[in-house]
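Please go through the protein record below and see whether the fold suits the sequence. Record follows.
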Amino acid sequence: MLKRIGILIFDDVEELDFVGPLEVFGMISCANQLEIMIIAETVHEVRCHYGLRVVPSHSLDQCPPLDLLIVPGGPGARKHARENPAILEFVRRQEGYLASVCTGALVLASAGVLKNENATTHHNRLEMLREYPGVKVERDVRLVIGDRVATSAGVSAGIDLSLSLLSRWWGEDVAQQVAENMEWESEAWRMATI
């Protein structure tokens, strides 16, 4: 059972890419003694794509072992996070489950963790994902859930990804309760490609 979830952020990260998963897992955190951390390269303020400013709770160096790391996307993922040696090494060090939202898949691919894995990303960035050797790019799917790595398509797909993972670890009834509480009507989280 998951006890510690980390959500990685960086300058120019897409807000909904990380706030959607934060909301999903946040709804069950108290009842399940789940710790959720916002992680960045340093604990200094991060400016997100649309101007939201966030102060992370942990730096890459301070972060304890995670059961799940969620890597969001956005312009920052495409432009600099996927080339940041500290971020890539942090991703490689993870021993728990890895998940990406939208172009966060490019960060996972740059770190080498998508090699020989099926993966997806935003439909406008599938060609960028294909540039990484060994990644089996899935087109026309919202989610790809594997044994150790999960990826999702565009921005709102992070909510479906999180609900699907919630269902996997806590059961479909819990995921359904969270979806209903959020008034989330998409059923894509039930139909993940494995």
In short: Residues 82 and 151 are 15 Å apart (CA to CA).
